[in-house]
Design goal:
By secondary structure, the chain is mainly α. Helix content is about 70%, strand content about 5%.
Length: about 325
């Protein structure tokens, strides 16, 4: 008798997973696609404006540029939070078999500013925590990965509870923890079942995310509605598939392979985060470029010289030679 009940539970698990994905796929998501495209255009535009161009430095990342990237990341989080709240509200509406218009998606966070501010605080806090962990060499990313594996289901459902029931963050986190009890395996299997789509999205340079992210978001919305008893499972037309545990095992193996490849690439092409001690020196030199031709003692149209402290300096000289010449000129003038 025990073996039969186990088989039924396992069968039910993968049927639930397949139903949630199938139901999400058939929903009309045109307004969500349009909203997501608008968000992507804004984010890419802001990244081009806010994030400094360090690609030409061959992955040499000065500290002052890192601070700019962090600030720009917070600004981008403010924008993406706004759009994603509207998208998740639209997914909730669609999964409850109701219609949604793009105007409702775009104006929902503005009309429900309290919900927006709650989730904005949550997302900015997560962004700062992420940044701190990733700055810690080796152990930081590992600890962050472990923490996020545990928190991802709770945070995902918390967002839906805040939007759906307008609860406070504390209450939403408490309710989320209760709803997820003994149902986390289904969540992880759902997420990992999208690994193939994620890899294809990377290979298409993110173009596939226009279809993939709304599909994933709608599936997680269905999962929330299911565990909160707002969604019934229809088994008709569903074929047998891989068990949730097997999906999780395969997903972990694939991600281990991806992680190893990423680590090897980072070893070969390391990203250096250093204090840019020469930044002010180079800045001063660029300011002095305007004076190249203002001193009659310096050769005209010659990039090897620049004018500094009433002296014509040869840029190809060693710094010690420059100091010796400067001290010699200073003593000569003092006499």
């Amino acid at each position: 008798m025990k073996t039969k009940t186990k088989k039924k539970e396992e069968l039910k698990d993968y049927i639930i997973r397949k139903f949630l994905k199938k139901d999400a796929k058939k929903r009309t998501k045109s307004p969500i696609y349009i909203t997501y495209i608008i968000m992507i255009i804004l984010v890419i535009g802001l990244e081009l404006l806010l994030i400094p161009n360090f690609i030409n430095n061959r992955f040499h990342l000065p500290l002052h540029n890192l601070l700019r990237i962090t600030i720009s990341g917070i600004i981008i989080t403010i924008i993406t939070t706004y759009f994603m709240i509207g998208i998740k509200k639209a997914c909730l509406t669609l999964c409850k078999s109701k219609k949604i218009e793009i105007k409702q998606i775009l104006t929902y966070p503005l009309k429900n500013i309290n919900i927006y501010l709650k989730l904005l605080i949550l997302n900015i806090s997560l962004y700062i925590i992420t940044t701190v962990f990733l700055l810690i060499p080796i152990i930081g990313p590992i600890l962050y990965l472990i923490l996020m594996i545990y928190l991802l289901p709770i945070l995902s459902i918390t967002t839906y509870i805040v939007i759906d029931k307008e609860e406070t963050l504390d209450n939403a986190i408490t309710q989320s923890t209760k709803l997820l009890k003994e149902k986390k395996t289904l969540f992880y299997s759902l997420i990992l079942s999208f690994t193939g789509w994620l890899i294809l999205s990377i290979l298409t340079l993110g173009l596939l995310t226009i279809w993939f992210i709304p599909y994933l978001t709608t599936t997680i919305t269905n999962y929330y509605l299911y565990i909160s008893d707002q969604k019934k499972i229809n088994k008709r037309g569903l074929k047998e598939g891989l068990s949730n545990k097997l999906i999780i095992i395969l997903g972990i193996i694939i991600w281990i392979i991806i992680s190893i490849i990423t680590i090897l690439l980072l070893i070969k092409y390391p990203i250096e985060i250093t204090k840019d001690n020469n930044y002010n020196y180079n800045y001063n030199n660029t300011n002095n470029d305007n004076n190249y031709n203002n001193n009659s003692n310096c050769p005209n149209n010659n990039d090897c010289y620049h004018y500094n402290n009433n002296n014509c300096i040869n840029d190809n000289c060693e710094r010690n030679d420059y100091n010796n010449n400067y001290n010699h000129n200073y003593k000569h003038n003092a006499r």
